[in-house]
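Most newcomers find our protein records easier to grasp once they have seen one. The structure tokens are whole numbers drawn from a learned vocabulary of backbone shapes. The record below serves as our worked example for the rest of this section.
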Amino acid sequence: MAAPRIRLLPPTTANRIAAGEVVERPAAAVKELVENALDAGARRIAIRLEEGGIAGILVEDDGSGMSAAELDLAVERHATSKLPEEAMLFRIATLGFRGEALPSIGAVARLTITSRTEGGDAHAITVEGGRKSAVAPAAGPPGTRVEVRDLFFATPARRAFLKSARSEAEASLDAVRGLALAWPGVAFAVESDGRPVLALPAQAREARIAALLGPEFSAAALAVEAERGALSLSGLAAAPLHHRPTGTAQHLVVNRRPVRDPQLRTALRVAYRELIPRGRHPAAALFLELPPEAVDVNVHPMKTELRFRDAEAVRGLLISALRRALAVGVAAVPGLAPEAVPGSGGFAESAAPAPAPPRPMLTGWQPAPPRPAAPRLPLGFAAPPPPPEPILPEEEGPLGRPLAQLLSTYVLAEAPDGALVLVDQHAAHERLTHEALKAQLEAGGVRAQPLLLPAVVELPSAAVARLLDAATALERLGLEIEGFGPGAILVRGLPALLGNPDPAPLLRDLAEEMAEDGGEGLALADRLDAAVARLACHGSVRAGRRLTGAEMAALLRDMERTPRAATCSHGRPTFIRLGRAELERLFHRR
């Protein structure tokens, strides 16, 4: 059989193929049209959807509008007003710039555009399945009105792959929400099948975030601010206790462009990795500003992924800024104390307190003396337990004064406002140990305690290889190891702060951590931070350990002084708080 001959595609076919890159579903068309309105300087944008945008999309704006000649060019491929010079391709400062959206939509739908410049006359043009009409006089206010009917009527196969009208409408609404978050000074209104679904006036950024992300996020929000050279980062990040099951609550805006860039999302995950449980996701609304020439926005047809000229600087700024914002003590956790959340919109504004090293009492706890066995009484009843040891009075902080230890695992305390606080002693001490180890590491290295008798730990050969490859870094953590044959490690020293833990489970966990992080390309500092978290877990007081009254009080006070003490190194909460309202609900008093 003869080989097929190479030929040029007809313009209509080529346009429909190009449309598949730009307009994959109604939400993509809505996004492109709203971006055009924003680039035209619109202050008000109204969107109407019919059947999720499949039957109809209408976008009206009060932007600069187009003349008759511009309107005729606007529906041609590779025509745009946003690249005045060829060199501008490498410093994009607008949202849409490829000149593909309008002709692409016109290639697969019935498109009508009516536009009028300030002080000029209104004109209209139609494009149906790639065939355009002549520009004709029309009536309309200043700005542009774009109506799309019967999306994908010219490509029925594409239309068959669309989801339900409700799903398509929600996707379009998500696209508008993202742009509304990035442009708070613009008013947005969205109707779906005649029903208003979004109404946002022009407003300040914090008010726009609160309107779009809801009161729960606002109450849990911590301010994020950082600058490094020409890079600027601002926005809000939720406290670690307010994590989500998916990453849909992560809103990232770069130069006023909403993106879902994997590099930025990875940096966000790394910043929270020790603060939220595995499988959960942080919530944030972050805004990054940098020179247009420092970022390439043309690496993805939908312009949602980016390529940074200095990706490491961007990543480092994001991680360090988030960690500073998240390094808050218990007293500053949003929602814990009335003073933790300022009155302006419910957003936390206070800076993180400086970390304080744990008191020696916590690193050298001694078990409480054993209590004598209770004498047996007739009929099988046990004697009542001896009275609890009195707890020494001490100045109260947000976590209050300890009342008792429950199940040899939880410390029960009463907060100054009368709320009950229940502290997980292992999780809390894990965070205290973690921060103490981290402070030593940042000061030059964790102090090591040589073992009187070196311990031999047998491990799989791959785990041994990973640990030995990291031996120099682990030595900075106070963990001194060396090879001992093909399947074993010789441990000569452990971090002094950990006491005397069993080195075998510690090494197994470290090896697993290194295996899991292998694909993320983490920097050494991030790997060491992850290792510190593992060390802290193995060096913390365990559940089942009886504590004295003084030890319980010391634990509460140290938690109040320690950064990030609201969660342990694995992201679990270290305490829960039951105020009057929660108690009344439990007892059906309200």
